[in-house]
Each structure stands twice: as C-alpha cells, then as structure tokens.
Amino acid sequence: MKNNTFYFVLLLCFNVLCSQTKIVDKKIEIEKIVNSIQLPVIPNYKVSVTKFGAKGDSITNCKSAFDKAMKACAKKQGGTIVVPKGVYTINGPIHFVSNVKLHLEAGAKIRFGSNPKDYPLVLTSWEGTMLYNYSPLIYGNNVEDVAITGNGIIDGEAKDTWIKWKPLEEKDKLLSREMNHKNIPLKERIFGEGHYLRPQLIQFVNSKNILIEDVKIEDSPFWCVHLLKSRSITLRGLKYDAQNNNNDGIDPEYSSDVLIENIKFNNGDDNVAIKAGRDNEGRDNSNSPSENIVIRNCEFKGLHAVVIGSEMSAGVRNVYVDNCKAGGYLKRGIYIKTNSDRGGYVKDLYFSNIALGKVEDCIYMTANYHGEGAGLYPSKISDILISNVSCESASNTAIVIEGFPEKKVENVVLDKITVKSAKNGMTLTNTQNISVNEIIIGDKIGVPSAVK
C-alpha cells in the first residue's frame, strides 16, 4: 500500500513538472510565431478620398471616390488612402488591391449602404463552404501587403437591413451544405440575387501580410472580420460594438500565422472563432489547416470568448491563448466543438492566464455538437494544456470534456483551474489521459473541524 501511494505521488509530481515545462516551451513557441509574421510594407504615396469628391456629410454616396482613390494607389504600386473626419456613406463594397493601407483618422466613419444590387458576386465562403455570394463590404482576394488602420469607425449599418435576412437564410444554408456534401463544382455554387446569405463586413481571401489595427467595428451583416485561406496576419487594438446575429469578432479559416492582441471585444456572437472548412470540402483541404494562431492581452465580451469549430474539417492546431480576461457575461469561456460529420482534428492548444467572470460553462470540449452527424467522420481532439484559469461562477458546469467512443479526447492537462461557484463540477465522457492539478470548484474547504 505504501509503495502504491509513493508511486501515485511520484506520478502526480511528474505530471505537474511536465506541465510547467510545457508552459515554458509554449511561451517560446508563441514568440517564434509572432516573430515570423510579416507586417505589410506600404509605399509612401498618400492620398485623401476628399481629393476624388468624397464628402463626410453622411448623405453623399462616396463609392466612386473610394474606387478612384484605390485606382490611384494601384497606379503608384500602392499607397495610403486617408479618410478624414466625417461620416462617409458608401453604397457598395471597397475592394482592395495590393500594397494599400486604408487609414481612418479620428472622427472618421465609413457607413455602408444595404442595397444588395450594389454588391457584386465574389468568391467567398459561408459557414465553411466555398461559394459565390454578395461581396463582403470590405474585400480583398489574392492581395498582399494591405492594412486598415486608424481611430475611426467601420459601420456595416446592418441592424435595420441585412439582419432581416436571418429568418430567410435556412433554405440557402442547407443548399450550400448539400453542394458541399455532393462535391458540386465551385463554379456552380452561385448565390446572390434571390438568395439570403448575408455578407461578411471585412474579408480577405488567398491573401498575406495583412494588418487591421485600432479601428472600431460596428453593426456587421454577418461575421465581422473573416480571414479566409490567408496568412501572416496581425489584428491589434480593435474595438467592437457588433450585436447582430452571427456577429463573430474574428474568424480565421484555413489561415495561418495569425496574431490577435490587445482587442476589446463586444460582440453578439463568438469573440474569436477559429475554423477550417466544413465536412467533405474541409477534409479535401486537409493540407490547409488553421494553425500558428496567437491570441493575447484581449478583453472578451459576447456569446463565447475563444471557440474552435464547429467548422474545422481541415484541422486546427498550434493555437495559443494567453493573458486574457472577460469584461462581461459569456455563455462559455473556452469552447471546442465538432461532430461526427466533420472529421479532421483539433490539437496542440495552449490556454493560460485567463480570468473569466460569470459564464454558463467555463471550459467545454465536445465532439457531439448539437448531436449532429452520421458517425462516419468523428473528429480527434487531443494534446491540450489549460493552465491558470479563474472563473467567478458557472451557472451550469465548470468543466465538460466529451469525445467519441472510438476517438476519445486525450492528452489534456488541466492545471490550476479555479471556478468559485458552479451548479455542476466536472464531467468527462469518452476521454483518456486527462491530467489534473489544483482544480478548485466551489468554495475552498478550509481547515477541517476536530472531533469533540
């Protein structure tokens, strides 16, 4: 009996030592990723949109002026488009070319019109399926060295317009998924007029060396910032007030080498949702996982803080979340979700130094999202380290981890997790090799009373 106790203590100490060593290793890996990301290089040419007739009176349609400014930069092989103080209405999208920065000065606001006829069809994706749909309001395809900066506001003006499509989208959502499952050629996946899939606010596709910094983002039709099949991305200092349905803050999808830092979220949906394609199409792109993503020094507020999935069929790996806190209620803090139609994997994740307030669930990993899936393509969730996480209260469950019987969630380290109060403690289903150290759920017990 004494020998068994000795070996148990030895094993526990070994696991704790390993977890601390991993924390040091992960810090080094974070810096390697950050140092590998290239910021855009923008030529010195600079021009104001007012030079081309833009008026910040909130009434004049400035679409032509912004297009002319973009063309002027293209002729100079790039430059900076300055938006001075004022409210600029744009009836149609801004389409980026390479080597251009869009800079919104303090007091500047860009507000977009909502007539679908003003938004041409472009290559995009919708909830993990590639297709042609209305252009995102700010869009770039196959561009590099691009930036959106400044202390101004980008307003999608969607709450009284695009958002009314939400109840109408189900038929088109199901059609897009059917096209995915049946491998319908991309050129035949035409949406737009007569369909009701809302466009994203900002999207870059097949692009690299992207910077979005300091601007405030409001009232998006759908996802706010969508990085699709892109790499070398820096998002910092952003501020959000986007409360519509599906107003995710940042969605990297099939994207790599991403830094998300010093951002103040306030979203009607997920703050950061890391994705990698859906079902058949995602599995066919398994060489393009979302990977090497760093999220640090952020303040979360919205539906969920950091989410992986549920569209993750090409795989998600090497995600690092460090030194973040919640500024308000969240349904879930750390949320990993997939189902048995997705396939793919979620692995090599690191969460540390996270302070949450009131939540429904603090940490939730599930391979059975919505109970969906035929069971043919279960996903693998593994190799996760969660350390130094605190939470004020969980109205449902502190920690949930559930895998599939044939593909269990494995190799998870939970180290120094404190949830001050919770309706339920921890549930583990279809898991293996889950290591715990200093997990406190509910009030600390304190000193035991003596026998009288």
Explained architecture:
- By secondary structure, this protein is mainly β.
- The protein contains 4 helices and 31 strands.
- It has helices at residues 2-36, 63-75, 170-181, 279-284; strands spanning 46-48, 57-61, 79-83, 86-90, 94-95, 100-104, 108-112, 121-126, 129-134, 138-141, 144-150, 153-155, 202-205, 208-213, 216-218, 225-228, 231-236, 239-241, 250-253, 256-261, 272-274, 290-296, 299-300, 304-308, 316-326, 330-337, 345-366, 380-402, 409-419, 422-429, 431-441.
- β8 (121-126) and β9 (129-134) form a beta hairpin.
- The longest helix is centred in the N-terminal third of the chain and has 35 residues, at 2-36.
- It is globular, with a radius of gyration of 23 Å.
- Residues 5-12 have low confidence and may be disordered.
Topology overview:
Blueprint: H1 2-36, E1 46-48, E2 57-61, H2 63-75, E3 79-83, E4 86-90, E5 94-95, E6 100-104, E7 108-112, E8 121-126, E9 129-134, E10 138-141, E11 144-150, E12 153-155, H3 170-181, E13 202-205, E14 208-213, E15 216-218, E16 225-228, E17 231-236, E18 239-241, E19 250-253, E20 256-261, E21 272-274, H4 279-284, E22 290-296, E23 299-300, E24 304-308, E25 316-326, E26 330-337, E27 345-366, E28 380-402, E29 409-419, E30 422-429, E31 431-441
Parallel strand pairs: 1-3, 2-4, 3-6, 4-7, 5-10, 6-11, 7-12, 10-13, 11-14, 12-15, 13-16, 14-17, 15-18, 16-19, 17-20, 20-22, 21-24, 22-25, 23-25, 24-26, 25-27, 26-27, 27-28, 28-29, 28-30, 29-31
Antiparallel strand pairs: 8-9
